[in-house]
Protein: Triosephosphate isomerase
Amino acid sequence: MKSAKNIVAGNWKMNGLVASLEEIEALATLIDTSAAADCDVIVCPPYTLVCSLAAMKKQKILVGAQDCHVAVSGAHTGDISALMLKDAGASHIIVGHSERRADHGETSALVHAKATAIYIEGLKAIICIGETEAERDNNQTEEVVLGQLKESVPDDATPENTVIAYEPVWAIGTGKTPTVEDVAEIHTAIRKALINRFGDVGAGFSLLYGGSVKPSNAKELMTAKNVNGALVGGASLKASDFNGIIEAYRK
Ligand SMILES: O=C(CO)COP(=O)(O)O
Structure:
């Protein structure tokens, strides 16, 4: 049974101008001058910076994007395909982020279709799932999260083409986080669901936690059972903060 790879991924959301690429230079320097970390590092800037980030050719920083369309090309004004993102140099694409589910009404069925489009291009999908505060208060966390997992993750998902990110909506950008025990419990439920569905292979999927991860709480959250890394929003915008989270995977 192959164990899951650790990943620290940054989601810049709708932040970042060309000048922000200085943070990538700084991050690359911090990574190069620190002890080796036992994790992959991915940065997902806005579309406008994907090409420039890839052109920087920072070997230890993988390039991701934040969404894609289900089609390869065509009359879809304002949309971007997985093929275009591959062409621009991305290896990973986030899909199903709660902000897209909320702002654009994206359903798990659409997320599933986007993941399939990503696989067709040979890229990797970072599929996000997570409950709202109201769902948590109603004790529906596991039901909601496992339901989204089932519907969003295609049958041909593998640990090589798919990363799962659990992001409780109420923890995103709020400074609030679940307890380590709560994170371990839901990640263990996700792991069990993946093993039930995919067999032993299910043990190999990287399961990231996202929501107010900072240098000060990263180590504790990353050591929770069945947590294989973080999907980081705000703290990924500053090289020193993001490096402080990567620190959780340095000996
Ligand atoms: O949504 C997130 C990453 O995708 C988490 O955002 P924050 O780290 O800013 O809470």
